[in-house]
Amino acid sequence: MASFIIRRLIASIFVLFAATFLMYILTALSGDPLEDLRQGNAPNKAELIEARTKLLNLDVAPPLRYFLWLGGIFRGDFGVSIQNQPVNALLSNAITSTLTLVTTATIVAIVLGLIVGIVSALRQYTGFDYGVTLMSFLFFSLPIFWVAVLLKQYGAIQINNWLAEPTISVPVIAGISIVTGLIWMSLLGGRWRRRLTVFAVSALATAAVATFFSVTQWFADPSIGIVVFSFLALGIAVGVTAISTGLANRKALYASLIVAAIGIALYFPMLNYILNGMTMWFFLVLAALSVIVSGAIGWFMGAPDRAPVVRTTAIVGFLVAGLIALDKYMSYWAAYSNSSRVRGRPIATVGASTPGLGGNFWVQGIDLFTHLLLPTIAIILISFAGYTRYSRASLLEVMNQDYIRTARAKGLTGRTVVVRHAFRNALIPITTIIAFDVGAIIGGAVITETVFGWTGMGRLFIDGLNAHDPNPVMAFFIVTGALAVLFNLIADLVYAALDPRIKVG
Fold first, then answer.
1. Sequence spans of domains, the chain
2. Is residue 444's pLDDT more than 70?
3. Is the distance from CB of 24 to CB of 62 less than 8 angstroms?
4. What is this structure's pTM?
5. Residue 204 pLDDT > 60, yes or no?
6. Which one of 22, 133, 135, 155 is least enclosed by Cβ atoms within 10 Å?
7. Residues 281 and 220: beta-carbon distance below 8 Å
8. How buried is 296 (Cβ within 10 angstroms: 0-12 exposed, 13-18 middle, 19+ buried)?
9. How far is CA 182 from the centre of its chain?
10. Under a CB-based contact definition with an 8 Å cutoff, are residues 55 and 84 in contact?
11. For residues 306 and 284, is the Cβ–Cβ distance under 8 A?
């Protein structure tokens, strides 16, 4: 495997050399970096032109200038911009902003796309499958800049107006209830009597919850509360166990319920004492501890087959801890929304943070969430459509294989056939799509960042192109190219992990 990785890295380096050379030449020949100075009326125009020429080595031919730039890259220096700012500093700020946005959107899109695609494949030719197919093609065909503008209008401006008095009208409650009932009815399937029962129960439950939210104006000061948290924690324990090992594995079920019970017991101490005065490092330590302690419970209770039990309890512990953190964030929502900087309009449309906001760890987290919300949704909608279609097609192809029919003939449960046999092999083509999409998503974030005013890689790239400045453009290109190469290498390694027949070497 080591020799394979080395060979791939060497080949990738040569590909990057060729690609960066072509990109540098095209950028250098796209315009005159001295155009603004030539058209200016400054009394020291000649001195300014001479200074910029020396700064950017404009007196050197572009092919030779590329090698000067390349020598700086080997020293870790991306050069300076046309405004005499170090590109390293510009890149450091830009890449942090962009990766925050892209990482969140990519992870959510992959998870949602896989889940919905798999369920759609398992419910092939049902109402749910047709609905998902329609929505996928609709989202896939929408241009991202148009989606972003619509989100700013209806996902921010209109929602902020509604949050001033967050009551839900009766027609809206009825519409939401009917749509929810139809979704659950098509998702669970069965005979018409069962479908109508599922529709009625889910619609009435949705109407009751929406009415409660409207009467109490829950969205103005949201919270989960110990009662709802207890039901959700126990539901997570049962649901994760059902998917991970099956409810027939009593050791996994009991261990997961113990983890949920510990989370319920720690609910008030965590909210009122432990989570006060929080910092990022302490937050990460608590997240790691929740996974480690939950996994340890699974290890002690899971003998002799410990691995699936540990996996299940670790996931349950992480999700239950996440619910507690979410409730803590909610407790600061009213303070954030009513602050002098936000002024009752919490859903942001521009920028990555609220200037001069201040506040503790939780307020800053809410501020980051409100600024990430709309651009993340814009990227998710476009990516989600592709992941849903690919995962559905891949799973349908796998489910028709001979070894799946053999597994069913052996008497294995449907969950075991899908999770252990079909799902793993269906991930192989999805891995390829994800590897190729990483670079494309960062490139696509140029449009999203422009619409939502994020100062990230997109702004760095656009400003460099407008100024005919190759150094920021090349910094953008190096990052996206390196990420594409890295994730394609990771994809090859994941192939070998998913399919033992594939040899990496």
1. 2-91+455-498, 123-442
2. no
3. yes
4. 0.83
5. yes
6. 22
7. no
8. middle
9. 28
10. yes
11. no
